[in-house]
């Protein structure tokens, strides 16, 4: 995720900015940059890649000056490149902006500004802010008023630092739904999106709240509401945090942090993409292929591991709601299978967090050789798969650092649900059905929060089941892939044998293994296959098998059969995987953590699998 640092004081800004950027590296990023004012002019340096590259550049061409802003970028609009790295500037190179968040209406604003003669030099949403500020300064406003006026036009989220030639000794800071803190004194201010960039210098912190704007200069700071001019009194807090704890947001591991981020991840993946009243999904990345997609008669979903499990859920969604025959294939098998593809009616959709997985990329190449339309559902912007596919949809889940995928799995499910809406509404899906899905998707973040409240209970359960060496995970229909995913999460971080099974297959073999030492995790919400699942649970019970059930809130029947029950809120059947997977992630996490294992970096595994 992007990171922001600003400095204003008596020391050389570049050293403190660089140190701050280094401390934000753990968040993941793809490019970095800074702007420093040396008393007579602004100097900007940017690099694609690591902060170390920026440091190298700075060691060759020192930028002196005691005021500056800096940024690490995680691409959302436009590929990772020097051109798209922050700080962004206006036409004259007199306004400088670093930004975390997304300007959702940037396209409309950009068109308007271009009509007025503004020239853009990046593909980012952020650059519109610099041009808006330029425009209002040209109209006679001072810097603070020009920033405030610009922010009134912006829809979306932001943490912002802005400097400008008109008042070069000031930094303006503003926030809306993206964190920003001001470190105060002695004799200096360090402003950052994350306290880890500040605490080395001061423990006195002010937290900006939404729709607050701070003007900072050598004399001090003044904070006002975006909609007014009077001062807002802010408390200075003393923060005594352990630095490593901060990087992980206070969680013991990135995996746990990422599990807890999931309500926000869902909101980020949905942002700007649902037109609720019309029951439609607006997927900008598919605009160019919208007409081609109308003639598609078969979808081929291809991916590996967790992303493959998301595809299996997608298959149910797309067939049931979009009415398009859908096949799913693991990428490592796809090209060896000699897939029969028709360029007129087939589409290949690959799903990949990293966008670099060798097998998934090979599937894209295979499809291209056969002239078949390829789409990507990818998290890392500008990654190879994102570039190689004809069109696609980004997850916008932010960087995932834990090797075991959690929040990106949920965001893959969200994007597949959006795609189902998109393709379904192109076909026979009614406005009412589309509207219902949209309405329910909006509730998912709140529902996940309710499940996360059961973390302590799940942790205790992981302790109680800590001695077992084998687990079955069972589910049907939409939740069969969730069983596979739950089993994968447990085995990859705890090294304990676990197997995901379609519950209907139990009698065809696996039932032979059931006995008191083999517990089953059963995903059994009140859906269209509920009764069938109950029968399977009875079969396990009759053979002394222990059962942990994931069930719908209020289901008292299930507690009579299962040994343990974790409840999830009721939602549409197609969306239950977004909820049912959360307790399974938590169970796997606590199970492995209680064994003292390295949860974020399981043995033998890598985050990005670039070899076959
Ligand atoms: C498991 C996990 C892997 C990945 C798989 C594909 O937790 O993360 O199974 O899902 O290696 O990776 P991407 O999505 O980067 O193509």
UniProtKB/TrEMBL annotation:
<dbReference type="InterPro" id="IPR046348">
    <property type="entry name" value="SIS_dom_sf"/>
</dbReference>
<protein>
    <recommendedName>
        <fullName>Glutamine--fructose-6-phosphate aminotransferase [isomerizing]</fullName>
        <ecNumber>2.6.1.16</ecNumber>
    </recommendedName>
</protein>
<feature type="active site" description="Nucleophile; for GATase activity">
    <location>
        <position position="2"/>
    </location>
</feature>
<feature type="domain" description="SIS">
    <location>
        <begin position="461"/>
        <end position="602"/>
    </location>
</feature>
<dbReference type="Pfam" id="PF13522">
    <property type="entry name" value="GATase_6"/>
</dbReference>
<feature type="active site" description="For Fru-6P isomerization activity">
    <location>
        <position position="607"/>
    </location>
</feature>
<keyword id="KW-0808">Transferase</keyword>
<dbReference type="InterPro" id="IPR029055">
    <property type="entry name" value="Ntn_hydrolases_N"/>
</dbReference>
<keyword id="KW-0677">Repeat</keyword>
<dbReference type="InterPro" id="IPR035466">
    <property type="entry name" value="GlmS/AgaS_SIS"/>
</dbReference>
<dbReference type="GO" id="GO:0004360">
    <property type="term" value="F:glutamine-fructose-6-phosphate transaminase (isomerizing) activity"/>
</dbReference>
<dbReference type="GO" id="GO:0006002">
    <property type="term" value="P:fructose 6-phosphate metabolic process"/>
</dbReference>
<keyword id="KW-0963">Cytoplasm</keyword>
<dbReference type="InterPro" id="IPR001347">
    <property type="entry name" value="SIS_dom"/>
</dbReference>
<dbReference type="GO" id="GO:0046349">
    <property type="term" value="P:amino sugar biosynthetic process"/>
</dbReference>
<comment type="function">
    <text>Catalyzes the first step in hexosamine metabolism, converting fructose-6P into glucosamine-6P using glutamine as a nitrogen source.</text>
</comment>
<dbReference type="InterPro" id="IPR005855">
    <property type="entry name" value="GFAT"/>
</dbReference>
<dbReference type="InterPro" id="IPR035490">
    <property type="entry name" value="GlmS/FrlB_SIS"/>
</dbReference>
<dbReference type="GO" id="GO:0005975">
    <property type="term" value="P:carbohydrate metabolic process"/>
</dbReference>
<keyword id="KW-0315">Glutamine amidotransferase</keyword>
<dbReference type="InterPro" id="IPR047084">
    <property type="entry name" value="GFAT_N"/>
</dbReference>
<dbReference type="GO" id="GO:0097367">
    <property type="term" value="F:carbohydrate derivative binding"/>
</dbReference>
<feature type="domain" description="SIS">
    <location>
        <begin position="289"/>
        <end position="429"/>
    </location>
</feature>
<dbReference type="InterPro" id="IPR017932">
    <property type="entry name" value="GATase_2_dom"/>
</dbReference>
<dbReference type="GO" id="GO:0006487">
    <property type="term" value="P:protein N-linked glycosylation"/>
</dbReference>
<feature type="domain" description="Glutamine amidotransferase type-2">
    <location>
        <begin position="2"/>
        <end position="219"/>
    </location>
</feature>
<keyword id="KW-0032">Aminotransferase</keyword>
<dbReference type="Pfam" id="PF01380">
    <property type="entry name" value="SIS"/>
</dbReference>
<dbReference type="GO" id="GO:0005829">
    <property type="term" value="C:cytosol"/>
</dbReference>
<dbReference type="GO" id="GO:0006047">
    <property type="term" value="P:UDP-N-acetylglucosamine metabolic process"/>
</dbReference>
<comment type="subunit">
    <text>Homodimer.</text>
</comment>
């Amino acid at each position: 995720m992007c990171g922001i640092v600003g400095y204003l004081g008596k020391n050389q800004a570049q050293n403190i900015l660089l140190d701050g950027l280094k401390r934000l590296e753990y968040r993941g990023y793809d490019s970095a940059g800074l702007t420093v004012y040396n008393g007579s002019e602004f100097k900007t340096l940017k690099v694609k890649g690591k902060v170390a590259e920026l440091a190298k550049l700075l060691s060759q061409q020192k930028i002196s000056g005691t005021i500056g802003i800096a940024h690490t970028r995680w691409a959302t609009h436009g590929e990772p490149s020097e051109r798209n790295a922050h700080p962004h500037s206006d036409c004259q190179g007199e306004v400088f902006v670093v930004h975390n968040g997304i300007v959702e209406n940037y396209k409309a604003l950009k068109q308007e500004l271009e009509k007025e003669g503004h020239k853009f030099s990046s593909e980012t949403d952020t650059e519109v802010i610099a041009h808006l500020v330029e425009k209002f300064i040209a109209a006679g406003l001072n810097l603070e008023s020009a920033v405030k006026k610009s922010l009134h036009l912006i829809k979306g989220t932001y943490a912002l630092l802005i400097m400008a030639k008109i008042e070069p000794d000031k930094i303006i800071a503003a926030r809306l739904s993206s964190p920003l803190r001001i470190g105060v004194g002695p004799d200096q201010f360090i402003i950052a999106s994350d306290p880890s960039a500040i605490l080395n210098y001061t423990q006195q912190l002010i937290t900006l709240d939404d729709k607050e704007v701070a003007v900072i200069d050598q004399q001090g700071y003044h904070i006002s509401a975006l909609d007014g001019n009077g001062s807002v009194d802010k408390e200075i807090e003393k923060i005594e945090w352990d630095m490593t704890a901060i990087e992980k947001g206070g969680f013991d591991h990135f995996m746990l942090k990422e599990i807890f981020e999931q309500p926000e991840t869902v909101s980020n993946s949905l942002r700007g993409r649902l037109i609720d009243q019309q029951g439609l999904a607006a997927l900008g990345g598919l605009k160019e292929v919208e007409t081609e997609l109308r003639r598609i008669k078969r979808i081929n979903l291809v991916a590996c591991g967790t992303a493959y499990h998301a595809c299996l859920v997608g298959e149910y969604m797309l067939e049931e709601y979009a009415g398009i025959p859908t096949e799913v294939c693991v990428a490592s098998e796809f090209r060896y299978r000699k897939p029969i593809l028709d360029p007129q009616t087939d589409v290949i959709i690959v799903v990949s967090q990293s966008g670099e997985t060798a097998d998934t990329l090979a599937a894209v190449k295979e499809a291209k050789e056969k002239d078949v339309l390829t789409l990507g559902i990818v998290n890392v912007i500008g990654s190879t798969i994102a570039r190689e596919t004809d069109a696609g949809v980004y997850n916008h889940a932010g960087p995932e650092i834990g090797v075991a995928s959690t929040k990106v799995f949920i965001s893959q499910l969200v994007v597949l649900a959006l795609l189902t809406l998109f393709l379904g509404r192109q076909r026979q899906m009614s406005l009412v059905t589309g509207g219902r899905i949209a309405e329910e998707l909006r509730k998912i973040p709140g529902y996940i929060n309710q499940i996360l409240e059961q973390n302590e209970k799940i942790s205790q359960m992981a302790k109680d089941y800590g001695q077992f060496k084998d687990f079955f995970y069972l589910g049907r229909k939409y939740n069969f892939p969730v069983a596979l995913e739950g089993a994968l999460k447990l085995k990859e971080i705890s090294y304990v044998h676990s197997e995901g099974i379609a519950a209907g297959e139990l009698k065809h073999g696996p039932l032979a293994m059931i006995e008191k030492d083999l517990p089953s995790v059963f995903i059994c919400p009140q859906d269209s296959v509920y009764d069938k699942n109950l029968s399977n649970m009875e079969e396990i019970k009759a053979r002394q098998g222990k059962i942990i059930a994931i069930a719908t809130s209020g289901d008292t029947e299930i507690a009579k059969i299962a040994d343990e029950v974790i409840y999830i809120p009721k939602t549409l059947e197609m969306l239950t995987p977004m909820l049912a997977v959360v307790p399974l992630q938590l169970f796997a996490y606590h199970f492995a953590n209680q064994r003292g294992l390295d949860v974020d970096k399981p043995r033998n595994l890598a985050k990005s699998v670039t070899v076959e």
